[in-house]
Amino acid sequence: MKRIRIDLGRIIDPANNIDRIGSVYIADGKIVSVTDEPVGFKPDTVIDAENQIVCPGFIDLSTRLRDMGHSRKATFKSEVLAAAAAGITTLCLQPDTVPVIDTPAVVELIKELAEKADYPQIYAVGGLTQKLDGAELSSMLSLKQAGCIAVGNANQPVKNLLILRRAMEYAASHDLLLMFRPNDFWLSNNGCAHEGAVATRYGLPSTPEAAETIALAQCLELAELTGCRVHFGQLSCKRSVIKIHQAKKYGLKVSADVAIHQLHLTENDMTPFDSAYHVLPPLRTEADKQYLRKGLAGSTLNSICSDHQPHDLDAKLGAFPETEPGMSSLETLLPLMLKLVTQHAITLEQGIACLSANPARVLRLNSGALTPGFSADVCIFDPEREWQVNSANWKSQGVNTPFWGQTLKGRVTHTLQAGKIIHRL
Amino acid sequence: MTDNLQLNAEGKLKHFLTIEGLSKSLLTEILDTAESFAGMSEHQVKKVPLLRGKTIVNLFFENSTRTRTTFELAATRLSADVINMNIATSATSKGESLLDTIRNLEAMFVDMFVVRHALSGAAHFIAQQTAPHISVINAGDGQHAHPTQAMLDMFTIRQIKPDFSSLRVAIIGDILHSRVARSEIQALNTLGAAEVRVIAPKTLLPAHVESLGVTVSHNLTEGLKDIDVVMMLRLQKERMSSALLPSESEYFKCFGLTEEKLKIAKPDAIVMHPGPINRGVEIDSKVADGPQSVILKQVSNGIAVRMAVMAMAMQKQGAAQ
Description:
Chain A is an alpha/beta fold. Chain A has 12 helices and 18 strands. In chain A, helix 2 packs parallel to helix 3 (about 140-145), helix 4 packs across helix 7 (about 210-225) and helix 8 (about 240-250) packs parallel to helix 9 (about 285-295). By secondary structure, chain B is α/β, with parallel strands linked by helices. Chains A and B meet through helix 6 of A and helix 5 of B.
């Protein structure tokens, strides 16, 4: 099989504590060596990465690719091109697909769609409950055996704490990770904006932070009670970061991520009634944004996810509360992470770790690092290269991003998945 | 963006969506224009030809009698052709999207939409999407804004108490769900009122309500001190079922306006209500029908103010073309 040498790039591999200029050697889809040339290595392909950064391919913990019942919004084919162009080599698919990921048959269907799209590293998160109804447990062991990497209920509520307790006990019995986005259904009260000054001014139905922090606190208690491994997804506020920090200090085995847009946008950035800013959890305050950044810098939050949710145009055309929440955000992930670095919120090494080594650890994958023997998932990017978010440069079928038209810095030039070049600029 | 969307290149009114972002001089211009129409209703011939040949569509996605009727009368008195569309019972119930409804009406060459909708931001959305020659007047969107109601109330206040800078105004009741309250607060603050005070239980106040530029009281007896204008809000029946209030009778006991409580306000205070009123819930009949009430005056003034807004939006549009 093909041998590839990546030359002259600045290699940043946080898991192996590497930051130096050198070459990466790949053969048979695996990393062979970093820096040291293996004896008799004759490459079929040489990639010149001078003045670029070579790092592990990114792992996205929360993605929607639509397709199946939602193919008018996006398809695997369209979105894997976007993922590849963003340097992402592994995707976790939330279970709220149509049909829901709650049977092995749907997991098989997803694998098949992934193969057909030439992007095999799509991992399904299985539904925690059947049809995500929050009432009856899904066949979690069967889902795990079919290939689910974790279980979760996406944005759907679990009916009561007894059911959540039992679901977590059952998941723990099969050593399954629970991916949990904390949100109390009743307190969230169908809100489409943060309960604060902006929602008050525009008369928008709103959701307080307490909807997130109360659900988070409950789940942390159950994590201790049941011994279930829990990863909290898309946290949006300061008090959530504090709670996770305390839980970790106390010794609970939990981890947490934040969606990239929460690190850059607040309620004040919302152009009045512009549905591109309609996301769940909602954009919160400047203080929350700063604390989420601190949470990353101090490793309380260990991952950044895209929370990619592509939509068709119609889904975003309407009065703000009736539009569908979510942003198309695979392709802005790297530039927005780099912006955190230039704004001195985190270091470049931390940023790369939050997109690779750390999510790999959450998922217990042998990936997210340039370790010899690991699958050759590599991202090569030019941190200085500017590009405009426009239809010429955009791959996702969903154009629902508030960054449309803006010029961003940082562009992926090559993406390798298991040693195969899946993107070349 | 809010203010840009409402004004044309010369800074004149194109759409009337919210009070936010409009200047004191523009609000005053609306009041002055309304003044010139105000006497007309008593004339034998109640029409002026300002909007002759123009077509105005009253697009009501939510039921309303008073607002729709006064908009219709206002348009008729400006000699426009008026079409009333009660969408609550027509197109959208067949699954047509808001945008499709708008596109279809545009295709019929209308000149202005007067829109009422149950969702905040609906009027903004229509103004953004609609053809550039069409003006949009917001007749109430969700919990966001009801700017013509605010302006007719400013008009009514000015008739009786011309100096806004000395006024202390209390708004009492369901601020949380009230588009009227939000627009009143913005209008009063823009026109320079000395104080806008909201009086309600915490369950009926939005988060960070002070950020709207108001002082807050949870007690009607304390809150009415030194008040020149008492604005009551309608209490919807469903507030009881969603656990925001225990009962109508307890609400009336705490926040209902009676003759006795009104005595706490200044002796020449006026009492206002956007209607329709719930007698015995937020206001006692003796106050609603009493000498300090200007509630029916508000209704009459609604016609003149809506004529002014329609005429201004259409006239500036003509000048821009």
